Amino acid sequence: MTDRSDLEQLIARIAMRDRAAFSALYAATSAKLFGICLRVLRDRAKAEDALQEVYVKIWHRADRYRVTGHSPMTWLITVARNHAIDRLRAEGPPTADLDQLAPLAAPGPSPEASAIAASEARRIGACLGELPADRADAVRGAYLEGRSYAELAERYGVPLNTMKTWLRRSLLSLKECLSR
Amino acid sequence: MTDRPEDQMPDEIEALAAEYALGLLDASERAAVEARLRAEPALARAVADWQARFAAMAEAEVAPVTPPARLQAAVEARLFGPAPARLWDRVAVWRGLSALSTAVAAVAVGVAILPDSRPPALVPTPGQVPDLDSGANPPGTILLTHLVPIEGSGLGLAATRDPDGRLQLRRVAGGPTPGRAQQAWLIPGAGAAPIPLGLLGDEPLTVFEPAPEVSALFGAGALVAISDEPPGGSPTGQPTGAILALGTLVAL
């Protein structure tokens, strides 16, 4: 498996328009990102289109990777997931763009923040497991299926505001568990 | 309680950041968060941390699926143009193409390929075997070839180099590529660097008048090629795009 510094180096070379680095990054990461596109879009042809567009974005935005302060996999997965969600909600407003986070880096990118998040990440499975199963599924539904509050409320048969309170509490519990 | 950021509880910022990262906010709520991101590092950091957590969740829980091999080629073609572009860099390939195009030229010449070619006298006598290895020819020699489509480009041309040095290229199949340029090159011999001759016009017939030093390099066995290039032609002075058509000159 390609490790973090390898991926960072590849992204840095892609920012300098290195096609060989792009091929290597594709080889190392496309299966993961394709899995995510498939999971979000649930349609092979759409996922194939989305994956192509994701890598076109990666090529064009590699020079902005560093300022996000993210680890390479966080950046790649977030680009893929947000793009797939945008395809899913073709009419809706686009999802949070990573570029919005540029100011995070400007005054000092807080590399420790992404390192902390990376170490928390290893425990995320266990922490999701501490939530009631349906609430953990609601978090997954929002991230990997692009469910809105209204859709989640319908799925779990609760009023919209209850759903919001529910999910917010679940997210805060998740955060609390991760930072333990 | 007001909505002013300094009055918001840390939990409120965390929950809002998570909702933003998940895409759960409606358009106006989302715009409000984005307006705050630049001014509020704590909120921006909370959003980044949630993005990292959710990405980690996806990395842990979503199984990788190898995409079909053609997708990589499709992505690279979208970004870099058609894949055969790289062939230009490889001398060995030129040698291979040269042999191929020699064979095709020999056949094409035998079959009389120029249905509407201007001087009709250029059509060779059937059965005549062109001398492909005669090297450089005196300026007065008539040279001709048929440029065959490469890699399914559909572009074919008839080429004649007149005794006065003028090179006439006439499209006999295919046409201009919208938004792209078709650039003509002379490759004086296998392994030699391509020399730019100029861009094909939109009309079927394009006439080039190469400088004397370039003209001197025309001879039997030299290659004429057309490449796909950005508008205005190759920015580097060497072919950057796919080979569209190729032919080996023979002496009449």
TrEMBL record, chain A:
Q: What is this protein called?
A: Sigma-70 family RNA polymerase sigma factor
GO process terms (BP): DNA-templated transcription initiation
Which family is it part of? Belongs to the sigma-70 factor family. ECF subfamily.
- The RNA polymerase sigma-70 region domain extends over 25-91
Record domain RNA polymerase sigma factor 70 region 4 type: where: 122-172
Q: InterPro entries, per this entry? A: RNA_pol_sigma-70-like, RNA_pol_sigma-70_dom, RNA_pol_sigma70_r2, RNA_pol_sigma70_r4_t2, RNA_pol_sigma_r2, RNA_pol_sigma_r3/r4-like, WH-like_DNA-bd_sf
User: Which GO terms of the molecular function aspect are on file?
Assistant: DNA binding; sigma factor activity
A Pfam family:
Sigma70_r2
Q: Which organism is it from?
A: Roseicyclus persicicus
Q: Which keywords does this Swiss-Prot/TrEMBL entry list?
A: Sigma factor, Transcription, Transcription regulation
Automatic annotation (TrEMBL), chain B:
Q: Name one GO cellular component term.
A: plasma membrane
Q: Which residues form the Anti-sigma K factor RskA C-terminal domain?
A: 102-243
Please give the coiled-coil regions recorded for this protein. Answer: none
Molecular function in Gene Ontology: sigma factor antagonist activity
Q: Specify the protein's topology with respect to the membrane.
A: Single-pass membrane protein
Protein name as catalogued: Regulator of SigK
The record's section on InterPro entries has: Anti-sigma-K/W_factor, Anti_sigma_zinc_sf, RskA_C
Q: Where in the cell is it found?
A: Cell membrane; Membrane
Q: What is its main location?
A: membrane
The alphabetized UniProt keywords are:
Cell membrane, Membrane, Transmembrane, Transmembrane helix
Q: Does the keyword Transferase apply?
A: no
- What species is given as this protein's source? Roseicyclus persicicus
